[in-house]
Amino acid sequence: RRQAASTPALSSAGASGSPPGVGSAKGSRPSLGTLNRSHLQRLAIAQSRVLIASGVPTVPVKNLTGSSPVNPALAGITGILMSAAGLPVCLTRPPKLVLHPPPVSKSEIQSIPGISHSCRKTTKKQAKKGKTPEEVLKKYLQKVRHPPDEDCTICMERLSAPSGYKGPQPAVKPDLVGKLVKCSHVFHLHCLVAMYNNGNKDGSLQCPTCKTIYGVKTGTQPPGKMEYHIIPHALPGHADCKTIRIIYNIPPGVQGPEHPNPGKSFTARGFPRHCYLPDSEKGRKVLKLLLVAWDRRLIFAIGTSSTTGESDTVIWNEIHHKTEFGSNLTGHGYPDINYLDNVLAELAAQGITEESLAQEKD
């Protein structure tokens, strides 16, 4: 209202000589006192458009009615101070959060060429039996007779001394040392066996120093369903193609032996979760790798939410997804020219590359 009072229209109305609240002669513009709230709002909007067109800096306010994290009173005070300093000011609304696409009918949904089916399900983990931790690690290690003069990065004791691990003692001598064959990092065998026993026990091993993966890494994602299809709408920044929509659905349940608190119930907030990829060549490649990650139970985990602080709940597991369809206000939407490359790097860090696609076919 204060801004509306400074518009040229109101100034000319006041110049007629009539005191506030008294109408002017017939045919002249009304005075400020005779204008109701809707008239003032229309005048303010009209003035805002003039200021925007002239390149005047704006003060963004998401919602002038009060239901906003940006307090309208704060925006009003800012406007008053700028006006007092002789600076023009305009209150505007920033872009809206657009999480979902326009409604899509079943007839408009298409399957994805080159990818069989349109849904994947995961069940409870099938435990691998028959191999002890020592047998698993034997495939990835070489024994070192003369340890280097450095620390074991697991127990932080010298490699030339016995392992400093104090937990349940594995059936390995504490002074034996081994070198991982791919990355050549050296550890106490005692420490590596203890680390394996504290992990997922899936037959794989990840170097604690450089994160190189040995074998096929799997996760602890609880049972659920992953759907995927094409919808006839384009993402911002990808106007030349349609959109791949992924829908994840995981129900609440009870934690298994591989989870943080076996036997305790866990929650699953925000499901079904909708995610989006451009239906381009690279977008389809990402989807194929996400399917591998889903089958290996690496998309989600059970832990503590970094957003709400809730424990024993389903959380994302280090592979970022885009959950905004038509905006990027939270950083989880489009346009984002680096997203596809970034998520490919995150998948590779979990041991999922194009080679994984060939392994899955085999």
From TrEMBL:
Q: Does the keyword Repeat apply?
A: yes
**What SMART domains does the annotation carry?**
RING
- Biased-composition ranges, Low complexity, are 1-28
Q: Where in the cell is it found?
A: Cytoplasm
**SUPFAM superfamilies assigned to the protein according to its UniProt record, in alphabetical order:** RING/U-box
Task: State the residue spans of region: Disordered.
Answer: 1-34
Q: Which GO terms describe its biological process?
A: Notch signaling pathway; protein ubiquitination
Q: In which pathway does it act?
A: Protein modification; protein ubiquitination
EC number(s) from the headed UniProt entry: 2.3.2.27
InterPro entries found in the cross-reference section: Deltex_C (IPR039396), Deltex_C_sf (IPR039399), Deltex_fam (IPR039398), Znf-RING_euk (IPR027370), Znf_RING (IPR001841), Znf_RING/FYVE/PHD (IPR013083)
UniProt keywords (A-Z) are:
Cytoplasm, Ligase, Metal-binding, Notch signaling pathway, Repeat, Transferase, Zinc, Zinc-finger
Q: Which reaction does it catalyse?
A: S-ubiquitinyl-[E2 ubiquitin-conjugating enzyme]-L-cysteine + [acceptor protein]-L-lysine = [E2 ubiquitin-conjugating enzyme]-L-cysteine + N(6)-ubiquitinyl-[acceptor protein]-L-lysine
Q: Where is the RING-type domain?
A: 152-211
Question: What are this entry's molecular-function GO terms?
Answer: ligase activity; ubiquitin protein ligase activity; zinc ion binding
The GO cellular component terms are: cytoplasm
Q: Name one Pfam family in it.
A: zf-RING_UBOX
Q: Which residues cross the membrane?
A: none
- State the superkingdom: Eukaryota
Q: Which family does it belong to?
A: Belongs to the Deltex family.
Could you identify this protein by its name?
Answer: E3 ubiquitin-protein ligase
Source organism of the structure = Promerops cafer
Source organism lineage?
Answer: Eukaryota, Metazoa, Chordata, Craniata, Vertebrata
